[in-house]
Amino acid sequence: MQIREATRDDYAELTALYARMCEILGEEDFLPEGNKGGFPSGSMIVHAIERHEQFVGIEDGTIAAAYIMDHECDPAYDQVDWTVDAARDEVSILHALRVLPEFGGRGFAKQLVDHAIKTAKERGQRAIRLDCIEGNNIPQNMYRSFGFQYVGTVSITYPDIGVPRDFLVYELAL
Asked: How far is CA 10 from CA 53, 64, 112, in A?
């Protein structure tokens, strides 16, 4: 898989990937309210593309995977006792890391995380932080395999979910 920054030409295919993944994830037990859709929003994708924060994984001429890495986070992150004391612009937040199911089992998610770590280091970041909804254990295991440390659990009401949920927050010191 080739990983690169997304361009405006990728927008339609990216929004389709994320919409499909919202449908798939909406069927999981950790989202009992079902598919809320809309994450990331179209405006978030456009903003990330413009700021060189949206990345895509290309396989067989298709966007098979994607992630966003920026400095935006829910205010609940301010309640966390992070291990790395750093300013907001020194910390990257990893969002919306997704791999289409037909490309699953090939290690693409791990390739994206590895790419995110290298990119954050190249950009002079001191840490990467992320959150995983409680019950979604597969990505948590993967993040821990890269050295991400569980730091705590916070309640967040993301607009796409619409109700407060517990999220486990992780940090990787760079």
From this structure: 13, 12, 17
User: Nearest to residue 149, comparing CAs of 168, 123, 135, 126?
Assistant: 168
- H helices of the chain, where? 11-25, 42-50, 108-122, 137-145
Amino acid identity for residue 143 in this structure? Y
pLDDT single digits (tens) 144-167: 999 999 999 999 988 777 788 899
Count the helix, strand and coil residues of the chain and give each as a percent rounded to the nearest 5.
35, 30, 35
CA distance 94 to 125: 12
CB contact at 8 A, 127 and 171: yes
Q: Would you call 9 exposed, middle or buried from its count of C-beta atoms within 10 A (0-12, 13-18, 19+)? A: exposed
Q: Rounded to whole angstroms, how far apart are CA atoms 88 and 73?
A: 9
